[in-house]
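Hi everyone, sorry if this is the wrong subforum. Our group has a chain we'd like a structural model of before ordering constructs, and none of us has done structure prediction before. Sequence below.
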Amino acid sequence: MELLKGWDCLKILAELVKEEKLEAYLVGGALRDIFLGKNNVDLDIVLRKRVAEIARYFAEKIKGSFVTLDDKHKIYRVIGKDIFFDFTAMKGDSILEDLSRRDFTINAMAFPICSGDNFSGFLDLQKVIDPLGGLRDLKDKKIRVTNERVFIDDPLRLWRAFRFATEGFVIEEKTRELISENSMLAGQVARERIKEELMKILQKKDSAKIIREMEEEGLFSSIIPEIKQMKETGENKYHHEDAWNHSLQVLNALEEILEDGRYNKYVAIEQHPLLKFTALLHDIGKINSRIVRGGQVHYYGHENAGVKILKPILKGLRFSGKEVSFVCGVVRFHMRPFYLYTAEKLSKKGILRFFRQGDALVPAILIHSLADKLANMRSNKRSAEIPLYIAFIDELFTKYEDFLERTELLYLNGRDIIAITGLPEGPRIGELLNELIIAQANGEVNNRNEAIAYIKSISD
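Answer:
Right subforum, don't worry. Here is the predicted structure as tokens:
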């Protein structure tokens, strides 16, 4: 039997609840999104009693899967076809008490599950239980707390408030005051949950403004204390702003670039939040690399210093190994395109070495570099240079595509080089392979025989 979809599943649940004479409700974000016209695939169901039993029975009815999420707190999941149903026990003695304990009014609405007739493709607004004015706030696009203990009871809600703000909502004045009063609690949340909220915020097109507002309340520096130091360093003859404000400007420029059809094709959309997070922290290494030489402030090597600082931060926020490599890779090479741009004698091999070292991260590095320099040039009244740098980055993209095409099939691999040279496996083999790839990309080597001759010539 084919698994059933949304409304059909709700009809079955409604008839089951009616048959068992139980009190059950569709609540929370699922209800909010239905009223917003969004396709929500995660529906929250509140039951007064027999939560696990009904969830299991419902899973059998729709031919879905039953999963225990938290037996102690009676939270269970039923997985249907492209849809989840999360069953929880009612908090308090009534649905009104349950709703009063939720975070924001737009999430504090309920719809009674008592008849299959209620789920015919729409929800009757007359039947919505809305004690705190959630429908009104939904219409007015306002984020309003349900009570004054909202952030004390669950500090994750501090982060969630700003996540909703990226979806076109405005945090109303009293709620903003409560955020300010309780912002010191922001760092008490499990890091993986914070990371999840951050990535959702950074998925949005205009996240730069919201990120700035979040840090005005101290949320970011509650989990990354180094941001306070970024606000106190970074200024020199090239930058008239501190490292944190410069990074916010870079994020803003990056969001413009990612909307540009010329560039967004180079970075997968699922990598956009990660690239934005990188933009926020790309200059974090400046806090440990400031020196004064000849009366001028410099930040030599801040790229590598930044990687050392970032790795434990990223791991602490539960970023995956692949995500850590992405962020650190872009930070490590984020100055390279600009160094190529300002080089007195720009060599083709210098560009190819960058392509080889940056590898698959080259498009992300180039886009970041463009955002970095756009922000800097705008801030420091050097707008005349912007078209020149855009043209340079565009040229590097063209050369990178040519590099990929020329090196798609290599004439030799590491084992071939070991056999040709008699050298043992180790770093030297990697160095020789890199030189061969650059020679192949440069047109110096055009077939296997030439590749063998080239390796022999540089391995002696």
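For your construct planning: The radius of gyration is 28 Å. Residues 3 and 81 are 5 Å apart (CA to CA).
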